[in-house]
Amino acid sequence: MLSAIEKRIVARCEALMDDTLALTCDLVRGYSVLGEEHDALKTMEGWFERLELPVTRVPLDALGFADHPHRAPVGWDCTGRYNLVAQLNADTPGPHLVFNGHLDVVPAEPHDMWTRPPWEPWEKDGWLYGRGAGDMKAGIAAMTLAVQAVREAGVTIDFPLTLQTVIEEECTGNGTLACLHQGYSGDFVLIPEPFGAQIYAGQVGVLWFRMRLDGVPAHVLDTRAGRNAIETLVEYLPTFKALEAEINGLPRQAPYDALDSPFNLSIGKIEGGNWASSVPAHAILEGRVGFPPGMTPDEVMERVRQCIAAHHAELADGSPAPRVEFHGFRSEGHLVDLEAPGIALLSRCHQDLLGEPPATYLSTCTTDLRAFHVSGRINGTCYGPVAQRIHGVDECVEIDSIRHVLTTYALFIHRWAEMARHAGERS
């Protein structure tokens, strides 16, 4: 049952839907792939200022961050790279609520497969299209305008609340980790990833790897004079499928024991050679492997090395051993504490708005929730809009689901404030 003030909050959310969609579209227009996040960051900074939210740039090259034990190694310069944080009542006692969302998106090539350019937002049949519309710019808009809805309803936000908009979620997780490294932490985090209005219950570990094979270049007048690195690389693909099956065949703990094949290995990128009429001298493969909570990235690295070394030995062709390196993600899996007070509060908000308790969702991917888990054991969950074809062609997000997340988050903020006041009175 909603109180009178809560009904007022819901009304303000409806009134702010146009702004929520406008912010989403503004962010989609900033095609924020790795290294090109500046337009989205500029847009977000402008909206924070427009809503009179204090904004701070949080750098990814902060003192000491390069030595953080959970920071993923990268091959690019982090100078000048930053997240944006809006922090309210930072020095106020009480439980600290954090909303976190990522501004970066994965590349949308080939662009000619899209109905419209991926950085051009468009609506059709109740869905908003564009790269990042679902993953996860609509969620960022919802969490930001939820704060505004509560304020416009006349509710005072007098507890610590932080909005984090970060980069590098899609490749390293270093953006969120940089926030935590610099003290932008809290007691509970909500992330509007586009898995729908359900409680996110856990996620797998993820490791990225790269393998380089060297061949012997030669003119194609006699291909036998060379060794084709691309053809050799193709022979490794069944080995990686076998590694995926091996990891999924290990004894599994609940709740991942109920899923058929939750730990996916994907070969996401292959390149090689430099001339059509030359036997290719090199080939490079990049992949991602998922693994269960409780297994460490170091263990998975060793499994990747061993499977590559074993296949190289089987080939026995006199070629040099492949070079293996690990870049980007090297993150643990973990399970969410579904008994946490914040989860219970979110569930009540969901039920009061939709009339039924939320379902739970067990993920076979990873999110920035991992950073909060490994860096401070901060509990939280993902709860966001409904999206289709994320990382795919014609990505889109359901507009009604954006409305629901906006309203649920605003109601959650109000009830969190009440919980914080009651906690202060008891103390």
From TrEMBL:
It comes from the Bacteria. The keyword Secreted does not apply. The keyword DNA-binding does not apply. It holds the Pfam family Peptidase_M20. Its cofactor is Co(2+); Zn(2+). SUPFAM superfamilies: Bacterial exopeptidase dimerisation domain (SSF55031), Zn-dependent exopeptidases (SSF53187). Keywords: Cobalt, Hydrolase, Metal-binding, Zinc. InterPro entries: ArgE/DapE, Bact_exopeptidase_dim_dom, Peptidase_M20, Peptidase_M20_dimer, Peptidase_M20A. Residues 202-313 form the Peptidase M20 dimerisation domain. PANTHER family: ACETYLORNITHINE DEACETYLASE, PEPTIDASE M20 DIMERISATION DOMAIN-CONTAINING PROTEIN. Belongs to the peptidase M20A family. This is ArgE/DapE family deacylase.
